[in-house]
Amino acid sequence: MGGGGGRTEAIMREIASLRAQRDELDRRIRFFESQLRVGVGAVTAASPTTTTLPSSLSAKPDAMGSHAAAGDGGGATPDMIGRYRRHLLLPEFGVQGQRKLSRSSVLVVGAGGLGSPVAMHLAACGVGCLGIVDSDDVELGNIHRQVIHIEAYIGHPKVKSAAAACRAINSSVKVMEYRLKLKPKVALDIVRQYDIVIDATNCVTSRYMLSDCCVLLNKPLISGSAFGLEGQLTVYNHNGSPCYRCLFPNPSVSTGYQSCSDNGVLGVVPGVIGCLQALELIKVATGVGEPLCGRMLLFDALSSRFKTVRRRSSSCMVCGENPSFTQHVFMMFDYDNFTKSSESSSKPTPRLNLLPENARVSCREYKRVLDAGKPHLLLDVRLAHHFQIASIPRSLNIPLPDLEKKLPLLQQALNKAPAEASRGGERKQFPLPLYVVSRGGSDSQVAVAVLRENGFLYASDIAGGLEAWAAEADPNFLVYW
Ligand SMILES: [Zn+2]
Known about the structure:
Elements: H1 2-38, H2 43-46, H3 65-68, H4 78-88, H5 94-102, E1 105-109, H6 115-125, E2 129-133, H7 158-169, E3 174-178, H8 184-191, E4 196-199, H9 204-217, E5 221-227, E6 230-236, H10 244-247, H11 260-263, H12 268-286, E7 295-300, E8 305-310, H13 327-332, H14 335-339, E9 360-361, H15 363-371, E10 377-380, H16 384-387, E11 396-397, H17 407-422, E12 434-437, H18 443-453, E13 459-462, H19 465-473
Parallel strand pairs: 1-2, 1-4, 2-3, 4-5, 9-13, 10-11, 10-12, 12-13
Antiparallel strand pairs: 5-6, 6-7, 7-8
Helix pairs in contact: 4-5, 6-7, 6-12, 8-9
């Protein structure tokens, strides 16, 4: 069943991939047909393209025939009325607002949970040019929040999937694809081509880099973040608003920004923040309304409560009165080192190494203990909701934060375990070996140190934790991170 199931799945995946390719071709055919109907000459320039390093390509919405045809002094074009009549009927917005939108170029950095609603709304509302930056591929485990992607694109680049969706929504928008990780050396060239930047990376390293870049190039930056059940939103570097470094000069202050892969996130939370980022973009691009400049909006999903806090700084090295941050400094700046976080939020955190060798066993050694049925107790120190997702059978869960106060419970379990083992014919062993496991092997080391201090001298850490266990000892372990 297992082998046949895998083959069926591979065939289904192939079918889905072929269908996606067919849809992409259909979409391109429709695009060119629509260009013929509108009678635009610049079909080639406006055609959707895949661009990896387009530093020389203009991101200006110059090829948008339908938009440009609106003219300077005239009213709405038939295409504008056809697509955006509900916008035109808004007295605050009207033809002027729509025309400004159609002439704007926006760079969306990140095509994930935040970037999904941002890109879809910006395509739908008719910005002139939409650049999308992302280096990752579509994964099944991310679609719950990255709603621009569909199963047919699993394993394909996110920029390709997101761009196809945007073009399918609105073929008159010029969509640029940048399949890369935005680094200082290319950031200036790419960001320079756009009017407004949206930070949808949900990554603190990129947040500093994009903020510095936008200050240097004088571009408004609409920044959002979403973790767990909370979100944040603000507009940096626009109408006198501060930059990211004004608010967080030191990365350690922003430790609240963590990775979704570590902490989980409810899919609609980045959805809410992403929609609000699209709204701020519309306000900044058109001058309609009051963007979130100098204010930060905080969203609490559990209570459905929004509040805004005003933040202001005086001495900022990037945007302050005496800035020391030049384009040259920017190009040389080591953002990864500065924020001490990995480039990819999905990479595991660096390992601790605080125990002596004799206090640790490899996951293969532990597997031999388990396979031989040797009496022992396995303590899993992950938080309860992680333990409930997947665990090694017959392990005891005491989360690390509760360990010290639950030592009596552990002692009780140790006292009970040998009796069970003796029924299998083994002689009782005292003290019973105690193995400790966590997800990545760091918390378990802390736990073993605590246990040894408290008299549990035979406690051993399973090196590398469940991540190593799944990779080296048990390929069937349900990897959920
Ligand atoms: Zn600043």
